[in-house]
Amino acid sequence: MKLFKDAGHLFRLAGVFLLGTLSFLAIRAFVVPHSFGQYGHYRGAAIAEIAAHPVHFAGHQTCETCHSDIAQTKSAGKHAQVNCEACHGPLAKHADDPSIDPGKPDVAVLCVRCHSASAARPKDFPQVDADQHSGGIPCTTCHQPHNPVIAAGGAK
Amino acid sequence: MPGVEGFMYPNEISLYWSVLIVLYPFITGLVAGAFILASLERVFRVEAVRPTYRLALLTALAFLLVAPLPLQLHLGHPERSLEMYMTPHRTSAMAMFGFVYLWYLMAVLTVEIWLDYRADIVALSNSTTGWRRWLYRILTLGSQNVSERALHIDERVGWLITLIGIPSAFLLHGYVGFIFGSIKANPWWSSPLMPVVFIFSAMVSGIAAVMLLYMVLMRLRRQPIDMSCVDTIAQYLLYIFIIDFSLEMLDLIHRIYEADESFRSLDFMVHTRLWLSQVVLQICIGTLTPILLLFLVQVTKLSVPVRKRIYVVSGSLALIGIFAMRWNVVIGGQLFSKSFLGYTTYKMALATREGLLVSIALTILPLVILWVLVKLLPPWPEKRHAPLPAALAAD
Fold it and tell me: Cα–chain-centroid distance for residue A59?
C-alpha cells in the first residue's frame, strides 16, 4: 500500500489524462456529424444537401430545344464541343423563364480567356496576342462565335 | 515571364510552400535535437551535460509549442486543424502527424518535465504567493508528496519516459523527413534517406541551439560557464555533425552515380539557383566550417576564452547551415519543372501572412516562451529543490 501512497501523484496524473481523453471523446461525439463515414471520409448527409442546391446550369440540351438554329451552326464549327453555358454562363433561370434576358457575353474578356497566346497551351490550338491580332477591334467583327472560322461566312 | 526560365507548367510557376514550411522542419528539428541532448544525461548517464538537462527539456517544449504555428499560418483556418483529431484520416501522412505531435507533447515532453520538476513545483507552491502560488498548486495536482521514495519512483518513471522519448523524438522528426521523402513525384525529395538525414540534422541543430542558449543565459546571469559541460556537448555535436554530413554526402553520391532522368536538371539547379544557399551557405559555411572548428578544439589545446568563441561561432554556423538545408529541401524542391526543362524563382514576401516578418516573429516566439518557462521553472542546478534520491546519489 505504501507504493500506492508514494505513487499517488502518478495516479493523479493518469486521472488528468483520463479526464482529458474522456472530454475529447465527449466533444468528439458532440461535434462530429452522425452521418460522417456513412459512405467514406466525409459527411454522408452532405450528398442530400448538395443535391438540394438550386440548379444554375440548364444544360445544352435545354438550350437547343429553342435555339436549334444556333446549335446547328455550332455543330459545324470548331466550337462544336464547347457547351453553351461555358461562354454564356449559367442560364437555368432563362430556361425556366425565357423573358429573362441573359445578355450577351463581353467578347473582349471571353475570347482571350481561351485564345490568348500561352506556352502552356497545345501548339495547334488557335492562340493570338489580342492587341497585335485585332488592335482592339471586337473579335465578333470578323469571327462568328458559334462557328469562328472566317471562311465560314464571317460575322452575322 | 520574370523569374521563369525555360519551360514551366502553369501550376509550377509560383511556389505553394513558402518560408514558413522551411521554418516548420527547422523548429521541429530543434525540439527533437534538444530532447536527444537531454536524454544523453538521463538515459546514457553522460553526467557532464547535466547543467543543460533541464534547459534542453524547456527548450524542446518552447519550440514544440510553436512548431504547428507555421503550418497554421500557411494553411489558414486554424480551427480546421482540430478536425485531424476529430475525424482522423489514416491514409494521410500529414494528418497523422497531428497524433505524432500530440503523443510527443503530451505523453513524453510534458510528463518528463513534470516528473523532473515535481519536487521544485511542490517547494515553489509553498514558498511563492499570489497567482504563482495558485499556478504551482495546480501543477502539483494536489499532491505534496516529495518523500524520498516518491522521488525515487519519479526518477524511475522519468527514465522510462525518456527511454520512450528517444524513439518518439526520432519518430517526430523522422516523420517530417518522411513527409518529404515519400513524395515520389518529386525527385529532389523522394529518397528513403530523407528521414534519417532529417533526424541527424535535427540533432545537430538542437544540440547547437541548447549549447548556445546555455552559454548566452549563463552570461546574462553572470554565472561561470561549466566548460566540461560545453566541451562534452561540442564533442557530441562534432560526432553527430560528421554522421549528418556523411549521410548527406552519401545521398549526393548516390544521386550522382545513379544519374536518373532528373539528374541533369537538379545538377543545373544546384549550380545556379541553389549555389549560394546550398554549396556556399549549407555545405561550406554551415557544415564544413563548424566541423573544422570543432575538430580543431579536439586536436589542439586551446584556452577557455578561445574555446568559448569557437563554440559560439560553430554553433551559430551550424544553425545557419541546418536552416539552409531546410531551405534547400523545401524551396529547392519547388524551383524546377516536372518537365526538367525549366526553373522558377521564389520571391519571399515581407509583411504578409507567409512573409519574412512573420517568420522572424515565429523564430523569436519560442525564445519568449522559453524565457517565461525559465522564469516559472528555473532550470539551473543550484535552484534545484529536490534532493537526489538515495539510489541516484549512490551511483
Answer: 14
